């Protein structure tokens, strides 16, 4: 019988799970996410992001983390899912603008019926479309980082909470989920109006009341 132990390949799902765990630990312990990212305001004057632990700005140039070119690391996508219950869409939406031959990949698009969303997107000025790498896409990420700070919604990313602090934080998170945040959807106004007319036809007394 051979003494050789066969090495089994680690499943991809387990590798991804471990990678996500490591990223979250780094975000909690060292604020290392985005370390060394170039500053969008200071350019070469800043050697790279060195994030202060609690000031939430670069120790070198004093600009915020959101003003540095930090690559996506799934942390904020995870935070958005935790708080909003809205899983980030892995399939990127593309749009073909009038007069253009090539489709543009969007960094984000609202939820809703595909045809309705496409019609909505084509009504926006080109500089407001969240095209990947555009100024509009960058500004949305900056707003998201401020609106949904990950340390505000996951006790595991906080340092040495007491039992009382943990209980109060969980109450706060539950309140935010229930009363303060939500995910909207793009809908056609004509569909809503048509539905309203249908209700009025079935409820003539309501129609008479509105008419008065």
Automatic annotation (TrEMBL):
GO molecular function, one example?
zinc ion binding
Keywords (alphabetical) are:
Repeat
Coiled-coil boundaries: none
Q: Where is the PET domain?
A: 87-194
The record ties this protein, via PROSITE patterns, to:
PET (PS51303)
| The organism's place on the tree of life at top rank | Eukaryota
- Name the InterPro entries for this protein: PET_domain, Pk/Esn/Tes
List the PANTHER family hit by this protein, alphabetically.
Answer: LIM DOMAIN-CONTAINING PROTEIN, TESTIN
> What name is this protein filed under?
PET domain-containing protein
Originating species:
Acanthoscelides obtectus
Q: What is the lineage of its organism?
A: Eukaryota, Metazoa, Ecdysozoa, Arthropoda, Hexapoda
